[in-house]
Amino acid sequence: MTTVAVLGGGIGGLAASYYLCKSPQVTKVIVLESSSRFGGWLWSTRRSDGAVFEHGPRGIRPAGAVGHNTLNMVDDLGLGGDILPVPYSHVASKNRYVYMNRRLHRMPSGLSGLLRTVPPFSRPLLLSVAMEMLVKKGVEEDESVHSFVSRRLGKELADIAVDSLCRGVFAGDCRKLSVRSCFPVLYDAEQRRGSLTLGMLLGSGPSPAVSPGPLAQRSVTESWAQWSLSRGVESLPESIAEFLQRSGRVELHREAAVQQISPSASGWTISLEDGVVSADHIISALPAKALVSILPPSCQPLIQLLQDIATVTVAVVNLEYEGSILPVSGFGHLLPSSEDQALLGVVYDSVPFPQHDRTNGRTTRLTVMMGGAWFHEVFGSPDTVTEERLLARATEAVHCHLGVPTAPSWSRVSLQRDCIPQYYPGHFRRVESMRSFIRENNLSLSLIGSSYDGVSVNDVIFNGRTAVEQLLGTGV
Ligand SMILES: Cc1cc2nc3c(=O)[nH]c(=O)nc-3n(C[C@H](O)[C@H](O)[C@H](O)COP(=O)(O)OP(=O)(O)OC[C@H]3O[C@@H](n4cnc5c(N)ncnc54)[C@H](O)[C@@H]3O)c2cc1C
Ligand SMILES: C=Cc1c2[nH]c(c1C)Cc1[nH]c(c(CCC(=O)O)c1C)Cc1[nH]c(c(C)c1CCC(=O)O)Cc1[nH]c(c(C)c1C=C)C2
Known about the structure:
GO terms for molecular function: oxygen-dependent protoporphyrinogen oxidase activity. Pathway: Porphyrin-containing compound metabolism; protoporphyrin-IX biosynthesis; protoporphyrin-IX from protoporphyrinogen-IX: step 1/1. It is an enzyme of class 1 (oxidoreductase). Keywords: FAD, Flavoprotein, Heme biosynthesis, Membrane, Mitochondrion, Mitochondrion inner membrane, Oxidoreductase, Porphyrin biosynthesis. The chain is of the alpha/beta class. Among the domains are: about 5-40 and about 235-310 and about 425-470, FAD/NAD(P)-binding domain (3-Layer(bba) Sandwich); about 110-200, protoporphyrinogen ix oxidase, domain 3. It is built from 18 helices and 19 strands. It binds flavin-adenine dinucleotide (FAD) and the ligand C=Cc1c2[nH]c(c1C)Cc1[nH]c(c(CCC(=O)O)c1C)Cc1[nH]c(c(C)c1CCC(=O)O)Cc1[nH]c(c(C)c1C=C)C2. The site of flavin-adenine dinucleotide has 38 residues, from helix 1, strand 14, strand 18 and helix 18.
């Protein structure tokens, strides 16, 4: 293997390049990123007074093989000293709210939360959990998250808890999202154990083996629920880019939009605005839609499958208020779609990460997230909606949900277009068919990034690693 071109410099493309760099089999890596910065959705604003605001992900989960894998990389990059851990015992881990019927409800947790009737639910959750073990295994090879949870745990849990959860992870509609692709652990628990409850108690299946390094071990000993970095999560792609630069084997190109790729005798020819690049193999870390527009006509069947992967747009509104303004403490609150389609949720950023607050004078940082699967219905086209309208809607929500009458002292509206892929039922089959097409046509192409096998930062990094291992036929 000589030259590998990595298309897209988001966290997926950078992670794949990092793993390629670890192998002596690869002589050259070329990273092509269309925008003027690396990191994609990992995007932090750092103000000169010490405040940090996230416009994409803000907390990363340390648990499981994929969580350990990311922490091993963080350690290797020398970022361990910058980590901001949030343990399970922290109020931000214990308290998550749902805003429903015009008030905040703390989501039940622990045994007492399961035993009692906790509004907005009309019966103890333990009843639903116990009855779940008696429900027969489904026969469909995939179904919507809402249909799966209604069938196993009842409609109320699906309408409130799962509807909100899907908005708080995928900004999506649980009636349209695939249970098999969005929540594989739930799907596997039913398949292997016949029940979610038994799956949780007995384990739902094998998970990939990743040996935890010192930082991952620390996350276990100290029971971390999530973590960030002292200068914001964008420090992670920045550190990877620095590592790649230092390696001497990686060419990093910004403002290098790939316009077309065509198979050649020895691999691929990649056309940019101002020239061409040759590579033996391509790792595409582009969103599915972007890959569609650069593939040659000979890849029509692949193009058709990629076109079926929809995305949603999210308006992310960062707000800073003077003083301590929150009536409750916790991670934040979500709204089920029945309460308000436009408003997905509000993150109370100052609670898990007070280190990102301005250094002098008490402030409260919040992030309001809006739109998602309902964006067009509520706000119309992202091309015409104004920042003023989005800001007004966000501050009105803070007033109405949290009783904050004052205006924010600082705000920033980011319209994150097509930022979260939506895995609809049958997504796993479509991805399987894409990879079969690539294999059968001997295309030297790997597909990674959030469009295919998981949207979390951990999933995207881990899948970058897996693609490199498959390409090189060895562990990295
Ligand atoms: C608002 C928001 C909140 C989130 N919160 C969390 C969270 O709390 N925890 C979590 O784990 N995950 C979270 N995520 C998800 C996670 O951030 C993303 O799934 C992940 O960053 C996607 O990475 P990627 O590399 O696959 O894609 P991207 O970040 O989209 O990277 C793709 C790159 O390709 C480039 N590109 C596009 N077209 C071309 C072209 N023709 N040529 C060259 N380059 C091109 C783009 O500019 C981009 O840099 C969140 C996402 C969003 C949007
Ligand atoms: C209100 C909208 C959103 C909030 N976060 C996201 C959206 C669309 C995006 C997002 N959040 C998480 C992930 C990664 C999932 C993973 O597998 O790690 C993504 C893409 C993390 C997350 N956020 C919430 C949950 C339950 C999770 C899963 C992991 C975990 O349990 O920590 C809930 C949640 N998200 C938001 C709020 C306000 C909220 C709950 C109060 C914002």
